[in-house]
């Protein structure tokens, strides 16, 4: 990956001294990419007693990192992080990478936990989720068949792209029309084309004629049949001369070459390099990698909105769900998933390939490592995929793993299904009816079939939640907040599949909305219902109100109620007492038969005419409607204070 780092992860600098302040020989070697020489000079500087700044110590740590001396790199990073505040997010990632590479993953996890309040919440969540998948062995091989391509050379070959029945890729192989690029010792990059044979191997490798000739870099192509052209990266140049900004930097631009021969720049800035263009026909987004001021670390993924190939927006950072303190490159969208590579610290080594599912609302799921089927402790990037022969999928990627022909090689693969661990996403909003007012700080828990908590979180200020877990066949969800109803649901595989298609909206009823004060008691708010005169059986006319009680206890599982039934003063006192007791017992029996746990019913009592609410007592003449005011059943909430706090 040496060549890719020089060319595609850092802004090109033909004369490094123009862009960096040099105070020592170590600096000169470091900014000239001569890391081993930089290590020698920085150590000489310290041994001679000369002052060395923390910036130079970070350069030394970076040099150790680049040359694979991760023990020394991690020690320097940790010391500087402890004693100074100049550590960038990108170097923070290198520090954790160094620790991970010397088998101190538990220390990385502990460090991450200690800094969780100061880090992006998405970064912490992404790391914890990928560590969980690793612990569960979810990232182990998923049936990849990987093969080396015949068309690789002894030089760097990388960034494959489909061109109908052909394969495009970038290469630093010698080319008589190209000069040697100093930092790599290879030719300036060019784009090549090869025939894809049956089985996926390639033949007839030639320079691609679909883009204008240039003596400088042309690389990382993407061909779009929809727009009828090739997107690619090229050096900013004016004819046979490179173009520089005021600091002496030469950056990479993204251009588009149409099949009719027309060329135009799409993204160009003399001070900023753009890498790895990918055009998504469905969304008309042009994705790419760059390192702007709003980067979360090193190189981030961005997109611009286009219309008929024209760029219609400023670059939009894809945010901390995708971008990390590391480098993110090589975006590719297939089957509603974004594939890309990252060297974030929780990966398997260097650059790893990740997959993030694109949600119905165009947000992204947690990126998951594709695992050992593709990724190694080396670098894997430039992943592309499409349907192959039969029911399988096929594609290509680049890697600097041992056994190849050059610095980077292009590999082919076949796989039976969509790569990456299966996951489940529970996403939605929690609202209060009737106006769907968002409810914040609601606890969302997901359980397995045995009742073990798989994940939990709180809704944000917009009532939104998103919980992701490794795939499992049966899952239960509980959504609750003090003073509100509780939502519980159990999902089977078919229901889980439906749940992935769109965000959910969960309504939680406030306890205050179903309670009213009556006779100095907190009771369930119901419409009046009446037993037939002299009878105690539950009638069909009464069941709608009793079903509201069942529903209330289902929504508020901790609810404790007392059933109190009253009569009017007509009839004998003892008979009224007996019939009211029978009526309370009948209501209790109905509730129990309809799923109310017996623990939720504190008591069921009948008071007869003991608690008349008006003057219609024995011997007093009253109209029927006044007597009817005393015919009532109350469902008294015994633990209202406990539930409402």
Class by SSE composition: alpha+beta
Radius of gyration: 34 Å
Report the count of strand segments.
38
Question: Strand fraction band?
Answer: 25-35%
The helicity comes to 10-25%
Annotated CATH topology of the largest domain: Neuraminidase
What gap, in angstroms, lies between the N and C termini?
Answer: 59 Å
- Compute the number of helices: 13
Low-pLDDT runs of 5+ residues are 1-20
The CATH superfamily label of the largest domain reads TolB, C-terminal domain
The overall average pLDDT, rounded, is 90
CATH top-level class of the largest domain: Mainly Beta
Outline: elongated
- Whole-number count of domains: 3
GO cellular component, one term: cell outer membrane
Organism: Zobellia amurskyensis
Signal peptide: 1-19
Keywords: Cell outer membrane, Membrane, Signal
Report on this structure.
By secondary structure, the protein is α+β, with helices and mostly antiparallel strands. It has 3 domains: 1-420, 6 Propeller (Neuraminidase); 423-509, Immunoglobulin-like (Sandwich), CATH 2.60.40; 515-644, OmpA-like domain (60s Ribosomal Protein L30, Chain: A), CATH 3.30.1330. Strands 14, 15, 16, 17 and 18 form a 5-stranded antiparallel beta sheet that branches. Helix 4 runs antiparallel to helix 5 (70-83) and helix 5 crosses helix 6. The radius of gyration is 34 Å and the shape is elongated. Residues 1-20 have low confidence and may be disordered.
